[in-house]
Amino acid sequence: MIKEKTLRIGFIGCGKMAQALAKGFIASGITRSENIIGSSPRIDSMFIEEFSAIGCSTTHENAQVVEQADVIIVATKPPLVPKVLTEINPVVNSDNLIVSIAMGIPLINLEQRKMLYIDAAKENKSHPCNAKYACTVLVRSGASVFSCGTSTRSEDATLTKRLFTAVGLCEEVPEVLIDACTGLSGSGPAYMYIAMEALADGGVKMGIPRDLAYKLSAQTLIGAAKMVLETGRHPGALKDDVCSPAGSTIQAVYFLEKSGFRSSLMEAVQAATLKSKQTGRKE
């Protein structure tokens, strides 16, 4: 088993997703910056500079990432995944754990694209997992899920969960739920940022200074989330606790219900889920 302090992590793609995960891994102590390497094409020099600023090594060669890492995280845009897999296949070895965070790419596609290339000895060269996470891993409050490929070993699942638990909540799920989790927790922070901004705007409309309004709205979301996670109570029951008879909160909840707030969020998750599924089919 690889020790956390010596865990070498490689990112194929140095964009915002990779940067958030790298910063989260470093902040959590799962590994050190000098044990992380990332690659991006020369045209993406800005990403290379930003990744280097974290203290990580960088390269323009994807194969070099595989050669220098134990865990390789594929963090490219979905259309680039086939090209990347073909490129790194010759240097992948039996000890590599490959984790794809590209939206909508099914595990079977990863396997068919030779991520699970079978050599003459009929031994798997790599062990893929498909992971989805929220950008909040940067502050170690991510909500991640992952599914394992057909040849993934138990220690691979353990390592994947250890990695993503270091930057937040992480659960293993059947692959059939991956796209839905993308729609819920992967895209979810964007929904909450809109809600936070709208709450703050409402406060400003009623006379609260802008800076204070943002602080109050952000802390309100944090507090509500912690109540659900730490008490284990149903969100509806917690909502009922806040709604006093004939009070201001129940009046506001009535307005939200009448305005379609609940159904809008449900449909947002559905829309993001369907987009993720469509992306996978196109690949």
Could you characterize the architecture of this molecule?
- Strand 7 (142-148), helix 6 (154-165) and strand 8 (168-172) form a beta-alpha-beta unit.
- The radius of gyration is 21 Å and the shape is elongated.
- Helix 7 (178-186) packs across helix 12 (261-282).
- It has 12 helices and 8 strands.
- It has helices at 16-28, 45-53, 62-68, 81-88, 107-115, 154-165, 178-186, 188-205, 210-231, 235-242, 248-258, 261-282, and strands spanning 9-12, 36-39, 57-59, 71-74, 97-100, 127-132, 142-148, 168-172.
- It is an alpha/beta fold.
- It is 52% helix and 13% strand.
- The chain has an 8-stranded mixed sheet with strand order 3-2-1-4-5-6-7-8, sandwiched between helices.
Please supply descriptive tags for the structure shown above.
single chain; 283 residues; alpha/beta; 8-stranded mixed sheet; 12 helices; 13% strand
Mean pLDDT: 85
Order of adjacent strands in the largest pleated sheet: 3-2-1-4-5-6-7-8
Q: How does the overall form come out from the CA principal axes?
A: elongated
* Total beta strands: 8
Task: Please describe the topology of this protein.
Layout: E1 9-12, H1 16-28, E2 36-39, H2 45-53, E3 57-59, H3 62-68, E4 71-74, H4 81-88, E5 97-100, H5 107-115, E6 127-132, E7 142-148, H6 154-165, E8 168-172, H7 178-186, H8 188-205, H9 210-231, H10 235-242, H11 248-258, H12 261-282
Parallel strand pairs: 1-2, 1-4, 2-3, 4-5, 5-6, 7-8
Antiparallel strand pairs: 6-7
